[in-house]
Design goal:
Strand order of the largest sheet: 1-2-3
Number of helices: 21
Largest sheet: 3 strands, parallel
CATH architecture of the largest domain: 3-Layer(aba) Sandwich
Oligomer: single chain
Number of strands: 12
Strand content: 5-15%
Structural class: mainly alpha
Number of domains: 4
CATH class of the largest domain: Alpha Beta
Length: 472
RNA sequence: GGCCCGUUCGUCUAGUGGUUAGGACUCCAGGUUUUCAUCCUGGCAACAGGAGUUCGAUUCUCCUACGGGCUACCA
């Protein structure tokens, strides 16, 4: 059975890049009927925060990425890591390094200045046991470095293909810091092995780490997983979208009213495509079609305009009830104490003209309260002079007598009024819309009038007749 | 600097040793619509450059350029 994991470090909220890595892992797991785990990489105690753990979990839930088994925290596995460090030292595949941070920094700077390639000089690689014991007894602090063997390391990436690195390019890297805590490349292997991970799917930025980790797998005799590296998500400047460069967190998209499935759809198509001309996919479609070998190798620029479009497509494919559920989840106050059927009418009239839940909320305002003000630009264009008052008044009189408050009747009344006044219907429709909603766009006038009801319409038009002429 | 990776319209992408290089988003024009949105029609717009292989390269190879990642006692 395939087992994959998403392993964020809780040093920030879940951002787009992380969300996509999680998505591809999740899709891969679901597509292969495997398991998907969530592991919190909190070995960096300085920067890891509980707040971010909570935020990441919340975002994962919002996206619908439920994980199998318990949440794994690296901070809870220190004993295992410590044992492994002792083991690898005992095996002679790692050694204690007494070089100070300061002297290493110095060596690095010197190499830079002299335009040489910096490599750790392996000063401590073959220290005589006596010297090592002596320095240990003196209480000198040390790190533990891996003894990188000669030769080369290669693997076949599920996305990038064969990758080979000469081991001479790999430093004897540190696997345990001077405070005894293990580093990423070491614990990553230990955990993936312990969790039985079969496929490591992560960002392209980990490609250089993979040979290091492969060496550790070999040294411990662990079974190696498959690796797949995902290209980066780029900003408009083609630079990696990262936290430092203001990568938006997943929660921002939720707050702006994007549906999780829309975000998933968009993110899925960013760097992957199932070789069809279809663009809109449900979560189930994605699971069914996902194939990691079709993932693109180059980074992809994030385009919010297209996400916006995808979002609109998803929104109008939902039933009115589904939209209502999303609205009440995101905006608990939305709709106030309005009756269910009223909300359904509202959603039906708006859902295909908006692209996000936030837009729906804002456009629906006039359904719940009288307009507080009238769009000045529209007023200037549509309510130019006093004769508008006369026309609107005439229409109000004509609809006051309507008992069957239907769109047909309302339209008939309007056309008759317009005829009587020798006007094109538009001359009357626009001012009436403005008076009723305060804005110059929205659903069909007669539809929104029907939904608002007779009493509200007449009331609002009377207010408008008083207020709007003041703006002329 | 070194190592690794990449390069088709502005963006996301499809594609083939011979195609009018296809689709989507954006943008523009027109149509529908009482408005907006939708919808429909149309338009702009790409194989990074050079050499080689070949009857023929966007497609295969090499080089260059450009872009990205890594180069920590971060992950």
């Amino acid at each position: 059975m395939t087992k994959v994991r998403f392993a964020p470090s809780p040093t920030g909220e879940l951002h787009l890049g992380g969300a996509r890595t999680a998505l591809f892992n999740w899709l891969f797991a679901k597509h292969t009927n495997g398991e998907f785990f969530l592991r919190i990489e909190d070995t960096d105690k300085e920067r890891s925060k509980q707040k971010y753990v909570d935020q990441i979990c919340e975002s994962m839930r919002w996206l619908g990425f439920t994980w199998d088994g318990p949440l794994v925290f690296q901070s809870e596995r220190e004993k295992e890591y410590h044992g492994a460090v002792q083991q690898i030292l005992k095996d002679g595949n790692a050694y204690r390094c007494f070089c100070s941070k300061g002297s290493l920094d110095e060596a690095r700077k010197t190499a830079d200045r002299e335009k040489r390639i910096y490599r750790y000089a392996r000063t401590c690689r073959n220290l005589p046991t006596s010297e090592e014991t002596e320095r240990l007894n003196k209480g000198e602090s040390f790190t533990v470095r891996l003894k990188v063997p000669d030769g080369e390391t290669s693997y076949t990436d599920l996305i990038y293909g064969h990758i080979t690195v000469q081991n001479t390019e790999i430093d004897d890297f540190i696997i345990a810091r001077s405070d005894g805590s293990p580093t990423f490349n070491f614990v990553c292997v230990l955990d993936d092995n312990a969790m039985g991970i079969t496929h490591v799917i992560r960002g392209e930025d980990h490609i250089p780490n993979t040979p290091k980790q492969l060496i550790i797998y070999t040294l411990f005799g662990f079974q190696k997983p498959e690796f797949a590296h995902l290209p980066m998500i780029l900003g408009p400047d083609k630079k990696r979208l990262s936290k430092r460069h203001g990568a938006p967190g997943v929660q921002k998209f939720r707050d702006e009213g994007y549906l999780p499935d829309a975000l998933l759809n968009y993110l899925g198509l960013l760097g992957w495509n199932p070789d069809t001309e279809q663009e809109i996919f449900t979560r189930e479609d994605l699971v069914e079609l996902f194939d990691i070998s079709q993932v693109q190798k180059k980074g992809a620029v994030f385009d919010e305009k297209k996400l916006h479009w995808v979002s609109g497509q998803h929104l109008f494919r939902l039933s009115n009830e589904q939209v209502r559920d999303h609205m009440t989840e995101l905006f608990p106050d939305w709709g106030g104490d309005s009756e269910e059927p009223y909300l359904m009418e509202i959603i039906a009239s708006l859902k295909e003209r908006v692209k996000s839940l936030a837009e729906l909320k804002s456009l629906s305002r006039f359904y719940f309260s009288d307009p507080e003000e009238f769009d000045a630009k529209v007023a200037k264009k549509r309510w130019k002079n006093d004769s508008i008052n006369k026309w609107v008044n005439e229409y109000v009189s004509s609809i006051e007598g309507i008992h069957d408050w239907s769109e047909d009747k309302l339209e008939l009344a309007l056309r008759q009024t317009a005829d009587k006044l020798d006007l094109s219907s538009g001359k009357l429709i626009h001012p009436v819309r403005l008076g009723l909603t305060g804005i110059g766009f929205g659903p069909s006038l007669f539809e929104l009038m029907r939904i608002l009801g007779k009493k509200v319409c007449i009331h609002r038009l009377k207010i408008a007749l008083e207020k709007l002429p003041q703006n002329i």
